[in-house]
Amino acid sequence: MKHEERIASELNIAPRQVIATIGLLDEGATVPFISRYRKEVTGSLDDLQVAGVRDRIQQLRDLDARREAILKSIKEQEKLTPELEKKINEAQTMTALEDLYLPYKPKRKTKASVAKEKGLEPLAIKVLEQSNFDVSSEASNYIDSEKGVESIEEALQGARDIIAETINENAEIRQKIRELFMKKAIITSKVLKSKEKDADAQKYKDYFEWDEPIAKIPSHRLLAIRRGEKEGFLSMNIAPEEEEALDIIVRQFVKGNTEASSQVETAIKDCYKRLMSVSIETEVRMETKKKADEEAIVVFAENLKQLLMAAPLGQKAVMAIDPGFRTGCKVVCLDKQGKLLEFTAIYPNEPQKDITRAGETVKHLVEKHNIEAIAIGNGTASRETESFVKKLGLPSSVIVAMVNESGASIYSASEAARDEFPNEDVTVRGSVSIGRRMMDPLAELVKLDAKSIGVGQYQHDVDQTALKKSLDDVVMSCVNSVGVELNTASKQLLTYVSGLGPQIADNIVKYRNENGPFKSREALKKVPRLGDKAFEQAAGFLRILNADNPLDKSAVHPERYKTVEQMAKDAQATVRDLMTKAELRKQINLNQYVNEDVGLPTLKDIIAELDRPGRDPRDQFEAIQFQEGVNEVKDLKEGMSLPGVVTNITKFGAFVDVGVHQDGLVHISHLSNSFVSDPTQVVKLGQKVTVKVLEVDVPRKRISLSMKSDAPQVKKSVKKAPKTQQRRPAPSKSKPREEQIPDGDLQAKLAMLKGKFGQ
Predict the structure, then answer these.
(1) CA distance 58 to 242
(2) Which CATH architecture best describes the domain 318-439?
(3) Whole-angstrom Cα distance, residue 145 to residue 149?
(4) What CATH fold (topology level) applies to the domain 113-298?
(5) CA distance to 402, 635, 682, per residue, from 707 (Å)
(6) pLDDT value of position 511
(7) Contact of 4 with 60, CB cutoff 8 Å
(8) Helix (H) or strand (E) segment spanning residue 262
């Protein structure tokens, strides 16, 4: 089966769509460009389908490259038979290829290779044939002191070593044992005795004595155990019942009940214990880790997408406050484009509690800079600072809202922040970032390493290359779906525009600084290194709000301007008229503009753009209002209903900020009255929700929440599950604490995760 046909079958699309998409990708087109501006070519594949084709064809090409390397190696050894070549060419996976190559793969000295050097291979072959002969008598013929074979037992041991390696390198039996591991192996976790009392090991306490079928273990639990092993607290083992594995090998290789057969059985036991079980366990570890990584990356990518696509406040004058106690609150004022106008510090909280002077400062700055919104970071002293601001009697038109500040401190110390604010300290830069996040979360968050934003789970444990690729795809998809204002965008934001990248983005900013704002998309061609291909890929995603040509502020690609101009001409109107008068657009018969280059999908997109030029797909901004008087964990009471906002989503539930400086966990079993297998089916990042407090541990700041309409309070009697339940919980019952450990900037949440939420 050709690659195109295989991909088409796997993705359930037509081969012609795959062929067309691969052709565009090979020409250098990006996923956003193909899915947005080449719908006629691909049959309207969306960005996920295009990315699927891109990733799969790369995997298959890598497989082909490895296939060629293996064939070349075996040919050079003069061991390539027509039968082997056929098997290699028909191999559909990298694992199958490597199994076929294993007997021919150059390897270091082994017991078998040493035995072969001693001339024992003929004996091994005869024993493996298992005919009825005197094994000891035959082995005595191979005693040779010069070769290092001193006895019959040494000769037989060498023969068994060769047989063990031969069996281990058999592709068919390896596949059978591999399947046994994947279906029936048990993953076992135990605490290292020397670390049992270690304080840092206690977060893995549920895994001090744990076993579970590898086929059923959730990805987050596997990653938790692997992390415990990596940190030196746990030992992990994956294996099926040994007797069942040995039985599979015996049935294939033991041919009778001869003396030689007994030797083969002994070799099989050695093969399995010393070679095959070790190598297959390694493979299973890698394969299950890969699957767990994929699931974790999907969770992280979806969270990141929701965070990046959070509702923007828009271009308004903003005051941003990074709250604090002893060190005070850092205050910055930004204009409608996010430019820093002024900064200072106020001390409205303990220990100074200079409320009068702080209030006067805030009121003065609000009036001086015509502030329209105040963004308050959600870290230390956030609720106290919010309460202080709301009591100042500011105009009701001034929006006051909490902003998630995860990663702001990382940005403030970054090269990007230093480049923009070389003369300001990290506290000012961090406050600016908080304010800009309110104005446009996407534009600001792209400046951060996505892993530092603080959403997802186990992002530091998964394959970092795969994670980066996935997150880059998400960021690029979000940036291009929203569009970028060419004259105000940062270098970091421009980097993710289709067809640009870091160097061209930097050149655009330099050109803009030297020559002033761009007047048209066409002027982009004057930017150094921005050639025709880059222009084609990027132009449709860049916006110029005050351009002479009104289409330059829309998502209509410049290559289709003539089509729009013809529409306007036929309607006896201008392009601007088409964009402002709905009655003119309704009169357009799209069929008359269909030709070999432009089809109905693109024409419909054009009309949609003329209706709402440069429309933003994100929701309208809405500030979250937390419960008055509930500012700290100690203010929470069991049974209390509270407003909150979803801050993180994992496979086992969602974290919700209820305004007490410590997020609570809504376990997956408490997300809905009906069964939920995927938390993203119920909630999304940034969503406003109402939760009920199930359990509060004030000293440890642990909060268990529910979104069920009939959520009962957790009874004290079930706070601690029996030890037997902790070891082998049913899927629907208690969950180990480690399932709830998120990552990134969520270190403050780690303490709460030792509790038994949702049990």
Answers:
(1) 38
(2) 2-Layer Sandwich (3.30)
(3) 5
(4) Tex N-terminal region-like (1.10.3500)
(5) 22, 19, 10
(6) 96
(7) no
(8) helix 259-270
